[in-house]
């Protein structure tokens, strides 16, 4: 892929980031198993992936979608969407982006508010292929505010519980596909992602938190100006 000037104004521009997202999305086509079901995540990187899939000529039996937005895009391209409950055989691959990913393939997800359905489809899949531009790779999770999907009546109590854990909760002006709220928790230093995922998921009213540590990625495709780096 070509990079068009000017790419740098102050730091990397969004245009470059989108080009990198598109590169990662294209590289993920290799992991699509033709004639099988495919799990599809949510976000701009996945948006590029859906366009690549539609124009690739690769045919899947159907896609299990992680959000209404993804469903709309898939259907607009004529790609069949199926309910996870209707899949009796297996789901070999799930392709999704992330907000942060560490060296153990633990992630923060949910920047787009689709974390619960994403976690469900990821868990049901044999292989999670994460597609990202290089800005998403971190040493330690937590610089990106951690999204939690929360039952509306529990927004205040969950916010207080997150303050007790040292976070700064901010309620997002957003309603999820499941009719719930999102709380973005700033200021967490996530040293032990699995333990924190357990602890937050136990708070009454939390549907799930955006730490994907118990079900992390299996393959990471990171795009940089040097090309695609594949890590397994
Ligand atoms: C949505 C997500 C996305 O994967 C994450 O926010 C990355 O999005 P983008 O590809 O737009 O950078 O978890 O809930």
UniProtKB/TrEMBL annotation:
<comment type="subunit">
    <text>Homodimer.</text>
</comment>
<protein>
    <recommendedName>
        <fullName>Ribose-5-phosphate isomerase A</fullName>
        <ecNumber>5.3.1.6</ecNumber>
    </recommendedName>
</protein>
<keyword id="KW-0413">Isomerase</keyword>
<feature type="binding site">
    <location>
        <begin position="109"/>
        <end position="112"/>
    </location>
    <ligand>
        <name>substrate</name>
    </ligand>
</feature>
<dbReference type="GO" id="GO:0005829">
    <property type="term" value="C:cytosol"/>
</dbReference>
<dbReference type="GO" id="GO:0009052">
    <property type="term" value="P:pentose-phosphate shunt, non-oxidative branch"/>
</dbReference>
<feature type="binding site">
    <location>
        <begin position="96"/>
        <end position="99"/>
    </location>
    <ligand>
        <name>substrate</name>
    </ligand>
</feature>
<dbReference type="GO" id="GO:0004751">
    <property type="term" value="F:ribose-5-phosphate isomerase activity"/>
</dbReference>
<dbReference type="InterPro" id="IPR020672">
    <property type="entry name" value="Ribose5P_isomerase_typA_subgr"/>
</dbReference>
<comment type="function">
    <text>Catalyzes the reversible conversion of ribose-5-phosphate to ribulose 5-phosphate.</text>
</comment>
<dbReference type="Pfam" id="PF06026">
    <property type="entry name" value="Rib_5-P_isom_A"/>
</dbReference>
<dbReference type="InterPro" id="IPR037171">
    <property type="entry name" value="NagB/RpiA_transferase-like"/>
</dbReference>
<feature type="active site" description="Proton acceptor">
    <location>
        <position position="118"/>
    </location>
</feature>
<dbReference type="InterPro" id="IPR004788">
    <property type="entry name" value="Ribose5P_isomerase_type_A"/>
</dbReference>
<feature type="binding site">
    <location>
        <position position="136"/>
    </location>
    <ligand>
        <name>substrate</name>
    </ligand>
</feature>
<comment type="similarity">
    <text>Belongs to the ribose 5-phosphate isomerase family.</text>
</comment>
<dbReference type="GO" id="GO:0006014">
    <property type="term" value="P:D-ribose metabolic process"/>
</dbReference>
<feature type="binding site">
    <location>
        <begin position="42"/>
        <end position="45"/>
    </location>
    <ligand>
        <name>substrate</name>
    </ligand>
</feature>
<comment type="pathway">
    <text>Carbohydrate degradation; pentose phosphate pathway; D-ribose 5-phosphate from D-ribulose 5-phosphate (non-oxidative stage): step 1/1.</text>
</comment>
């Amino acid at each position: 892929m070509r990079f068009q000037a000017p790419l740098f104004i102050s730091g990397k521009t969004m245009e470059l980031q989108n080009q990198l997202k598109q590169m990662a999305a294209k590289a993920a086509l290799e992991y699509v198993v033709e004639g099988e079901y495919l799990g599809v995540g949510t976000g701009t990187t996945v948006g590029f992936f859906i366009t690549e899939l539609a124009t690739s000529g690769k045919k899947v039996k159907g896609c299990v979608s992680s959000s209404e937005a993804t469903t709309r895009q898939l259907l607009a391209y004529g790609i069949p969407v199926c309910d996870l409950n209707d899949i009796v055989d297996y789901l070999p691959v799930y392709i999704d982006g992330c907000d942060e990913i560490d060296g153990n393939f633990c992630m923060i997800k949910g920047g787009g508010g689709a974390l619960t359905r994403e976690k469900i489809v990821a868990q049901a899949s044999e292989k999670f292929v994460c597609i990202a531009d290089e800005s998403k790779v971190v040493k330690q999770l937590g610089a990106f505010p951690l999204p939690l999907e929360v039952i509306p009546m529990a927004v205040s109590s969950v916010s207080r519980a997150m303050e007790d854990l040292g976070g700064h909760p901010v309620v997002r002006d957003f309603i999820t596909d499941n009719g719930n709220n999102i709380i973005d928790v700033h200021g967490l230093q996530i040293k032990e992602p699995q333990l924190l995922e357990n602890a937050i998921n136990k708070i009454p009213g939390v549907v799930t938190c955006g730490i994907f540590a118990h079900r992390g990625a299996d393959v990471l495709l990171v795009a940089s100006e040097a090309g695609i780096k594949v890590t397994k």
